[in-house]
Amino acid sequence: MEIDVFTLFPEWFGWLGEQRHVANARAGGSTLDCVNFRDSTTLSGGQVDDMPFGGGAGMVLRVDVVEAALRARYRLDPVALRERRRVIALAPGGRLLDDAFVDELAAEPALTLLCGRYEGFDERIVEHFCSDVVSIGRYVLAGGELAAMVLCDAVLRKLPGALGDERSAVEESFSAALDGNPEYPHYTRPAEHRGWRVPDVLLSGHHARIEQWRRERSRERGERQRAERRSGASPAE
Ligand code: 6GU
How much is the pTM? Predict the structure, then answer.
C-alpha cells in the first residue's frame, strides 16, 4: 500500500509514523509520504487559500494550488489521476468511514489523501480531481489532518503483518467474523479485583463454551447499539 497525504502540516504525521502498526506496515513495503501544498504553489508568499466568492467566513483551498501539487507529485494531469488511484478529499460531509469502507480502501494499491483546512476545498477540486470524499463522523474538525490520520491508522492496521498477531484484525469489532457486531468483552489477571470476578466460563478452559459466550456477548452489544440508535441516542446511518 502506498499512501500519499497532501497537507499544510506534514510534520503532524511524524507521530503517526512512529506507531508500531504503521512502522510494521512500512517494514512490509508500504509507504506513507506527506506532501506540503505550499512546496509547489506558484502564488507569492506560499499562498494556498483564498476568500470564498460570494462572501462568508473562512478561507478556501485553491484549485490551482492543488492541481500544481498533484502534477508535481505524479507528473500527470490530475483529472486522469483518479482513474489510476483513489484520490480522497477529507471533509465532514463525505461518505462515513466504517469497517467495511476501511476494508475496501485497504484493498487498494495506492491512496492519495487531500487535507483541507479552514472552510475546506474549492468544489472543483472534489468534482474534477477526487474519486471519493470521506468523513470520519458527523461533527466538524478544524481540518482534514486528524481525519486523514484516523483513515491511515485504520487502513494500515489491516495490512498483513501490521499487527503482531494476525488474528487480531479478523475477529474484532464490526468485522464480518462477528457479523458486524462490536467485539466481546476482554479480561485479564487478576481473576478477581475488589470482588469483581472475571466470568467463570473464561477460566474454564472450555474453548467451545468460551467461543459461544463471546459470540453471545458480541451479539448483545450489537443489539444494544442498534436499539440506542433507534431511540435517537445517535442517528442511524
Ligand atoms: Cl474528514 N474533515 C473535517 N474537517 N471535519 C471532519 C471530518 C473531516 N470528518 C468529520 N469531521
Answer: 0.92
